[in-house]
Structures are given as C-alpha cells and as structure tokens.
Amino acid sequence: MQPTDKPWFTESCDECGSAFSLSLTDKQKVHEEQTPFQKIEVYETEKFGNLMTIDGFVMLTTRDNFLYHEMMTHPVLFTHPDPKRVLIIGGGDCGTLREVLRHPGVELAQQVDIDEGVTRASEKYFPELCESNGDPRAELHFADGLKWVKEAEAGYYDVIIVDSTDPIGPAEGLFGEAFFRDCLRALGDDGIMVQQSESPLFHMKLLEAIHTYMRRAGFDHSQTLHFPQPVYPSGWWTCTMASKSPFNGFREEASAARPFKTLYYSPEVHKGALALPPFMQEAFENL
Amino acid sequence: MQPTDKPWFTESCDECGSAFSLSLTDKQKVHEEQTPFQKIEVYETEKFGNLMTIDGFVMLTTRDNFLYHEMMTHPVLFTHPDPKRVLIIGGGDCGTLREVLRHPGVELAQQVDIDEGVTRASEKYFPELCESNGDPRAELHFADGLKWVKEAEAGYYDVIIVDSTDPIGPAEGLFGEAFFRDCLRALGDDGIMVQQSESPLFHMKLLEAIHTYMRRAGFDHSQTLHFPQPVYPSGWWTCTMASKSPFNGFREEASAARPFKTLYYSPEVHKGALALPPFMQEAFENL
Asked: What is the mean predicted confidence (pLDDT) over B25-54?
C-alpha cells in the first residue's frame, strides 16, 4: 500500500515517528505566500476540500475543521455562566469566530491574529468559515496576541480562546506561564481561558506543562477535553480550560437547547470529552 | 515537511484520500510471510514499537493497540448482564482475548481466527498481547469464523466479538446479514455481538449498512461506540453492538470496580464513547 503516483501533501512529525498525507487534485497548490510572519499555502485535496498549511504544518481542511472549531468553542462557552465578551487569540481562519458568534448571548467577539494573510486566504479558500466576519459583534484585529492580552483592561473578558499554531515559532509564547498570567488578569471573576493543547498520544509532557503553567499563573482549576481531529498528528487532540472558579459541570440545558446546528458537539459529547482516559487522569493527578 | 529520507511504512487509502506513515528503525521489516490466507509483515518502528500489517494494511502497533483492544472488549462485556462464554472471531493477535480474560466472570473465551500465522507472529512480536493464551479458560482455534458460528450450538454464547480486518478479502463475509443472523442464533437471550465498524469520517455508508444488516438479521437493537485509534484511517474508529434486548446502559458499578488496569477504558469513557456526535445520530435515525 505505497502511495500511488498521484500528488500528495505530506506532513511528517519526527518526534511522533509518524506522517500524514492528503491526496491532491491536479491543481495541487492553489495559493502560496510568504507573509512577514510565516509561509501560508493552500492545496486543493481530492477528498478533504481545501487544505491550509502554515510553514508546512496542516492548519485545517474544509472537511474536518468542524471537529476542532466546535470543540474549541462550545464547551468553554457553555461552561462560563454567561459569556458576553470573548477574545480569540490566533484563529485567523475565522472558524472559531464563527462558532463563537452562534451564541446569541455573546456581545463582542474579538479575533486577534498576528497575520492578516491567514484571514485573507481563509476568506478566499474557506469562505464558509468567514460568513460571520461581518457580524456587528465581530472585531478582527491583526496584532500581536501576547501584547493585546498584556494591555487589555483587567477583568474585561469572559472567555479567552487561544486558537494557536503549535508551540514553536510565533506561537511559542502562547503556551507559557507569563501569557497565562496576563490572560488571568484580563478575565473577569468567572472568566475561563481555553488553549489548544495537542495530542494525548504524542504530547503528554506538553499537556502536563500547560496544566502546571496555568496553575502557577494563578488559575486554581484546569481541565482537559479530548476529541478526534483526523488531520492533526495521531488524529486525537485536546484543549485545556483554566479558571479561577472550580469547574462545576456546564450549562447542560442551554447546551441541549442551543439555537444552532452542530455536527460534532452536543451536551453528551461535551461530557464525553471531559471523561479522560485513566492514563491521562493519572498523569494530571501526579502534577 | 516532506518525509525525511529515513525509511517509512506507508498505508494509503484511495477512497479516503489520505495516507498514514510510521518511521522505521534501520532494521525495518523483521518478518514477512505469505500464509495460505494473506501476507503478514512485521516492521520495527521508531516510536510505535512493532507494527503488524496484513496485505499491506496496518493491523496494530505496540504503542496504541490498547485503544482498540480495550474498546472492543470492555464496553460489550460490561453491557451484558453476566458474560460467561465469549467468542472472538478474528483477533489472531490475541489482544482482544487478553482483555476478555481480565473479566473474572468469563468462564470460556474462544478465539477463532482463520490464520494461525497471525497468532504465531503475535507471540513473537507482541508477546504482551499473548500473555493470557495459556489461561485455562482460553481456547485458540484456527478455523473459518463464518463456518464456526454457523455450526455453533444455538444460544451458546453470551458475547461474540468480531475483531476482523476490513470488509474486503477474507473478512468480507463478516460484515453481512447472513453472518449476523448466524451470530444471533448462536447467542443467548441476553446475548450481544460487537463488530469493529470502521471510521465515522470515512465509512458512514458502511456503518449505516452494518446497522441495517444487524436489524434485518433479527437484532432489534444496535448501537455504535466511537474512540480514537491513531494508526487506522482518520485516527477515529468505531465498534457497533447488536442485541435482541434493548440496551439499557451498562453495569457501571462493576465497570468502576473492575479488578484490572486499563489505559483508555473507564465507565466515564464508556459513556463518552456512546455519546455519538449529531451527524452520526442523524445518519442512524434515518435508517
């Protein structure tokens, strides 16, 4: 079962010892751009729709981004008692922004991505993810997320979603204690931050570090959720929430009565995502 | 991020439009054998331990087989009220057998795989999966599973686990209505069968067909569970249970008090696996 001679995009991960490939149409690459921050490429795949990569790493595809975007958004928004002001750090493809704006109670959703190029490419190649960009509650800022959070008014946000690339390159600072401390300051008393936190199979050390840094930064509670994400290494991914207040479940009734359609998220799936396998529980208990 | 020049094993799936690769040690392939049924190969990977393939398709690796084996076994055994006699069709690597035998109430666990070569290779390259093969409750038969079930005493088994390869080649018959009808006949009144049922992202048509065939075969109830399985296409996998009696949850207390260690399975994870995403629920409701 060697790859046939059709064109493929391949991302290999040396530390994982694995690689993942998507077969491409004859058009292959439809966009390539070196921005001041990173290299953005878009490929046309045979079965996954469009594929965006940054510096050669898979960011998203048309076919399966719903998993990541729904799980980065709805669990945290249904955990906060009444989220009105939401900040998205990164998330330039606007898919998280779209999911946030599905919540009628949200009054302001600010997306702060350092690279305008990502949003412009998404508008062209993932227009469905950008359909809410004109919502009057949406603000798109192209700026340094670290600086944005540092300079934010104390207690201003209800939810901060860190929808970043991997913790190398421009996103590295988004996984550290200093950034988490700034997030804590920028959040209200019931505030919650959520961070994409990589694969349970490959990145348990990083996951443990994220919990440790969140606690050191002053968050008293942190909680990881897991979900499938086929185009990321191992196909199994996580996000990790942190809060000053204890997590006492989530607003299940509101979640069940959500006035929008989801493909993956439901209150039952939310509970399932919180049910960590024993090997993860043990790792976190020993922190 | 092209694969580096190290050696890789790659499985590509044309219908999925994707491929998955594992990096190999310098030894690369450590076993190759054409049995009367199929080609068995074992590779030494850099990060996943040993890898067994059959006819070029990934069967299992040392590192992540716990996900599949635990989820093919514990949910169905904790759903049946008191499983004593368990039949495993396929499962020649003996990993499912090992998990079944962890249940003290099981009195007989028969593994019926058509190809002895799989078990002999597993004994050598996955010895930890074969550690229970000498259990007095274990029977290893190398025979045609279709025929075995057809000739079984009616009502003999409590649980039948169909731990098969993909529905092409020798395993094709294991996904059909006639086989399911034979399973139904071989099961007691509370009997449950479970079938590995491929990826929710790639194989929803097959999943729908499995439910349809199970119902047509006379099972009144069928239920799919989902879980991560990194080395299978999409990294997201399912099994589907079928029963004459309605599924009324599972033995949660027994599951919580299980006298053996699991890495992935727990009663909470069990519930999470039963929580199907809306897109799957809708597909099954429309059958």
From this structure: 97
Nearest beta carbon to residue A17 from set B17, B23, B200: B23
Q: How far is B79 from chain A (nearest CA, A)?
A: 18
Give the residue carrying structure tokens 């949003």.
A119
CATH number of the domain where residue B33 is located: 2.30.140.10
Identify whether residues A52 and A167 lie together within a single domain.
no
Candidates A161, A167, A256, A265; CA nearest to A209 is: A167
Give yes or no: residues B208 and B160 share one domain. yes
Name the band, by pLDDT with cuts 50, 70 and 90, for residue B4: low
Residues A146-173: pLDDT tens digits?
999 999 999 999 999 999 887 776 677 7
Residue of A240, A153, A243 whose CA lies nearest to A199: A240
Whose tokens are 């393939």? That residue is: B53
Report d(CA B245, CA B283) in Å as an integer: 22
What is the per-residue pLDDT across A118-131, written as a single tens digit (0 to 9) for each? 999 999 999 999 99
pLDDT tens sequence across A87-142: 999 999 999 999 999 999 999 999 999 999 999 999 999 999 999 999 999 999 99
Q: Determine the length of chain A.
A: 287
Q: Which domain holds residue A25?
A: 8-57
pLDDT for residue B174: 80
* CA atoms of B120 and B31, how far apart (whole Å): 11
Q: What is the tally of structural domains in chain A?
A: 2
- Beta carbons of A18 and B230 less than 8 Å apart: yes
Nearest residue to A97 via CA among A120, A113, A116: A113
Strands B85-90 vs B108-113: parallel, antiparallel or unpaired? parallel
Residues 6+ apart with CB under 8 A from B45: A17, B9, B22, B23, B24, B25, B51, B61
CB contact under 8 A, B228 and A230: no
Tell me the nearest-neighbour CA distance from B101 into chain A, angstroms: 20
Q: What mean pLDDT value characterizes chain A?
A: 95
The active-site residue, picked from B113, B115, B163, B166, is: B163
Q: What is the CA radius of gyration of chain A?
A: 18
Q: Which residue has the tokens 């196909």?
A: A235
Does B46 lie in the same domain as B176?
no
Nearest Cα neighbor of A70 from A237, A219, A248 is A237
Report which DSSP code applies to A186.
Answer: H
Q: Among the options A163, A182, A190, A220, which is catalytic?
A: A163
Contact partners, residue B83, CB within 8 Å, separation at least 6: B76, B77, B103, B105, B106, B158, B159
Same domain, B114 and B250: yes
Does the active-site annotation cover A135? no
**How many CB pairs below 8 Å do chains A and B form together?**
165
**Chain-chain contact of B1 with A57 (C-beta, under 8 angstroms):** yes
Identify whether the C-beta of residue A108 lies closer than 8 Å to the C-beta of residue A77. Answer: no
